[in-house]
Amino acid sequence: MAVPKRKHSNSRSGKRRSHDALQARQLHACPKCGTMIPTHTVCPNTNCGHYMGRTVVEAT
Known about the structure:
Elements (H helix, E strand, L loop, with lengths): L9 H7 L10 E3 L6 E3 L11 E2 L2 E2 L5
Antiparallel strand pairs: 1-2, 3-4
Keywords: Ribonucleoprotein, Ribosomal protein
GO molecular function, one term: structural constituent of ribosome
Family: Belongs to the bacterial ribosomal protein bL32 family.
C-alpha cells in the first residue's frame, strides 16, 4: 500500500483548497418583469412565468 513519506504543509493544502469555496449564483433580470432570477430558469414571479421569450407557466 502506498503511504506518503512526508506530511503536506499547510501552505500546500491551502493552495489545493483555494478553488473549493462556494460561488455566488449568477443572476439576471427577467426581461418581462425585472425580477432577479438565476440563469436558465423560469421566472418564479406569480404574474410572469416567462422563459426564453415566451410565457411557459400560466399566471394564476
